[in-house]
Every structure is written in C-alpha cells, then in structure tokens.
Amino acid sequence: MKNLKGARVTVYCAGSTKVNPIYLAGAERLAKKMNEAGAELVFGGGKTGLMGHIATQVIQGGGVAHAVMPHFLKDIEMNHPLVEDFIFVDTMSERKQLLLAHTEGLIALPGGCGTLEELLEAITLKRLGQYLKPIIIVNQEGFYTPQLEMLKRMVDEDFMRPEHLNLWTVVNDPSEAIDAIRSTADWDADALQMAVNN
User: Fold this and answer.
1) In this structure, which CATH number among 1.10.10.10, 3.30.40.10, 3.40.50.300, 3.40.50.450 belongs to the domain 8-115+133-142+167-185?
2) pLDDT digits (tens, 9 = 90+) for 169-180
C-alpha cells in the first residue's frame, strides 16, 4: 500500500451549484479519507458545487488544497476563498496539464461535461504513457455506468485493447477512492508501445 502522506491527489468533479445532497455527502467522505491519509487535494479552484464543497471540507478538516484556475473564471469571482495556494493560468488546457502535474493519482467524482472531458483526457494520456498514476472512477449511484459501458464497447469493437480496461479502477463510493489509489500500481512506462501495437 502506498503512503500518501504529503502526496498530491487530483479530484475532478462538478462545479455546478445544483448538486444532489447524496453527492455532497460523498465528497465529505472523500475529504475525510484524504485528510486521514495526509493526502493533499489538487482541484480546479471553484467555490461552488462538489468542487467547492470538497475543498471546504478538506481545509476545515485541517488538510491542504491546491487550486488551478483560468483567469477568466477568477474574473467572475469563482475562485474558492479558503484556498491559499492558487495558480492562475490563461487556458483550460494549461489548467488540465497542471492539475495532473506531480500527482500520485486522480479521482473522478460525478460531474458534467467538463469533468467527463478531463477524465477521458487523463485516460487517453495514460494509454499513451504520458500519465502513469492511478485513475479512480467513483461510480456513486451508478453515475458513470453508461460511460463505463461505452469504454467496454470500445474494447469489444477493437478500438482499444482488453488491457486498456485496466487504465482505470472503479469504486462505488467516494470513501473507497483513497484506498484504491494506495493499492493500484502505476501504469507501465511502455504504454505508448502498447498503444502503437493496438
């Protein structure tokens, strides 16, 4: 099991203000597990939705949060007021790059098209050997079941190899995500060669 004390863990999730309380409670469970492990949150910097909620829970629980946000979102005061370590960038692409930099894994909670886009880009980067850390999909309330079925179909129809189903790990509750990072081995650095041979 990996020691995550002081490790940076990225969380992708919704910034929408309209969030089912079930997901808010899930974010609280994840925040508690992160703080217990000594893991530091890396997130998109928003003050609303699941994004804002998990950051608040981490910080108020004595943990550390690092945020990355484009200037155009700061300009409309979307940045989380409790976060001290903020990096502001020009584009969403820069944000995504920094969200993954020097992290020990990423966790995808439920979210909208931005969360899904970030998750799929991370899976693609891992398939190409550009990101080797665990990717944990939290399928709370079956939220990601349709996407997981689509990914399985991609394998069934030979757009990806069967091994690529191991690019991510699925858990059913946010409280399981940190242990999943601890117990999941890093991806093979030769992943690019596997992709070429697909």
Assistant:
1) 3.40.50.450
2) 999 999 999 999
